[in-house]
């Protein structure tokens, strides 16, 4: 940990991208859980899992992105009304989206879908359970 | 003696094949005999003349698209290439000082390398047996230089072995081989192989193991001149009073096995990664630039394809024209070669057959991340005598690759500081650019403490964030079942690219796919 603080401070000082050393240190806490395993995700909270996997394409606030093709926004997305749909495509993938069933457990998939369904302007508060994920595998 | 005279020698046989069947058959015969193995590339494509007034529209100016364009143009087709980006090359891509890269999400990197330094986010090495790529390099005068894949003086590293200290590849390799050679010698001597080997073969085996494993005359792997000549010395051979070398002590077998460092010992054995390998001098996109120059004006840039429709008369492609304020434009042709990655194509309106559509909509794209790190000083050369090659680690960066060019220069150098896949890559992709670089530095500094002092600037490319491909390479839902549906010509359209090959993610796969696609397109065009 100490070593990383030093490295992060070095980056903050040298690169034009890092804003300030202060904010770099604040972010360290958030990213500290990253890379605990080389084969699976170890984050357990919905927000933690979202920030470590989903955000890669759907972006930090679920806004999605558009290039030659698009990543759909998860913010205010009516397709999230039925959790089974999100569960299925998280496990098995859909179109360009890779299947994530191999790197996330039933509990993690339930947690992250519950998080997405109650974040980014979505308001589907009914719980998503590991059992629901298990029967979809 | 009689037998030898009765059968033709290999040379006689091949001469006969060449005389009767010509060069192509000769090549195939030699390939079958193991003389000229590898890529199915069979020399420059011979299409024959295009039917008069036939136009082919090519979607995408990556290597597959540009190869199709060059070859079809050369035999008389009218060719038009539409490209989403402002330049050609696709994943054959190099970042240099002054370049700007904006990833999905809007983060912008201004590349700030020293003059002449570069980073290849995509392909970065060419196997000697990728004959298609190498032939196009030769034909387009792209200068190649050796790429060092395997370096005995680079490191193998595990955070959980040797207290996190990196070990030279040569030490692990020599000790692993030495110990397995000694073990096999012992069981041979103990009679364990008596039932499966003759005495003569056992003797030959023991002799070979002494050579293979640097064993002593008693078939033991111990500190010795021959072992140290491979793994290194306590005191290296020199001159003068203290010139005599002193061997050092090998690690014991249990230590080597427990370290897990043997996992990387076969990393330069496969056809795709064995020496010699090559890289274009100055960056991988020298290949793309040469093709782009050869096409001289046939590529239209900043065209975002929005629909591909075909009927009995031809193909109509609609696009948003970035050079005309996003206005809608159309291009028409008799035929179309589509190299758009399926990650993008699945979102474009089309009227392909249902079997092809099904493959397009089920192919997902792999996650992969590379981080390039520039340092003020080439400390890996100056301090550690590592000239090119790769250090493998079980840290999330997975490897550090040292530049195979500009050796001994007193100037900054760029390392590949992380190359990650899978669960690790998703997390790298999710991090902001500056955190990816910070993580690559944090991990790399465990192997090279000089990182902390010498860091200059960093570049990161997370392939899921690359706007024009949305991933690293295509992965099939069921390749065996779907492959023929995807490569088959769909009336007037044929697909091409790395995703439609058995060399996925390699430039050779893109080229072989393209050559095969245009061969079949030409067949259809000439028989219509």
UniProtKB/TrEMBL annotation, chain A:
Keywords: Electron transport, Heme, Iron, Metal-binding, Respiratory chain, Signal, Transport. This is Cytochrome c. Residues 41-120 form the Cytochrome c domain. SUPFAM superfamilies: Cytochrome c. Its cofactor is heme c. Residues 1-20 form the signal peptide. InterPro entries: Cyt_c-like_dom (IPR009056), Cyt_c-like_dom_sf (IPR036909), Cyt_C_IC (IPR008168), Cytochrome_c-type_DH (IPR051459). One of its GO terms (molecular function) is iron ion binding. The lineage of its organism: Bacteria, Pseudomonadati, Pseudomonadota, Alphaproteobacteria, Hyphomicrobiales.
From TrEMBL, chain B:
The keyword Transmembrane helix applies. It is an enzyme of class 1 (oxidoreductase). It catalyses: L-tryptophan + O2 = indole-3-acetamide + CO2 + H2O. InterPro entries: Amino_oxidase (IPR002937), FAD/NAD-bd_sf (IPR036188), Flavin_monoamine_oxidase (IPR050281), TAT_signal (IPR006311). Signal peptide: none annotated. Residues 63-517 form the Amine oxidase domain. Pathway: Plant hormone metabolism; auxin biosynthesis. Belongs to the tryptophan 2-monooxygenase family. This is Tryptophan 2-monooxygenase. It comes from Pelagibacterium lentulum.
